[in-house]
Amino acid sequence: MGSAILGARNLTGCEHRLALDFAPAESTTSTTETAEANRRIEAAQSHRREVIARLYEANAQRGEGTVVLVEADGHRERVEATRAAMDAGVRWILQASLPTDVERGRRGHAEALVRVGEGYVPIIIVNHRVTNGTEPRNGEPPSLRTSPLSDWDPAPDATRSLRSQRRDVMRLAQLAAMLDDLGRLHAPRAEALGGLIGLDADCIVEVQLGGETVQEYDDTFERRRAIAEGRVETGPRKVSECRSCHWWPRCEAELTQTRDVSLVVGGNQGQVLRDAGIVTIDQLADYRGREPEEWVGAIPFSDTVVAAKCWVGGIPLVRRHDRPRVQRADIEVDVDMESFSERGAYMWGTLLTDNTDPGREVIYRPFVTWDPLPSRDEGRSFAEFWAWLMAERNAAHAAGKTFAAYCYSQHAENRWLRGSADRFGDMPGVPSRQTVDAFIASKEWIDIFEAVSDNFVCPRGKGLKRIAPVAGFGWRDDEAGGEASMEWYAAAVALDGADLDLTQRERLLDYNEDDVRATKVLREWIASDEVLTLPLAADLLAT
Question: Are 409 and 288 contained in the same domain?
Answer without folding.
Answer: no
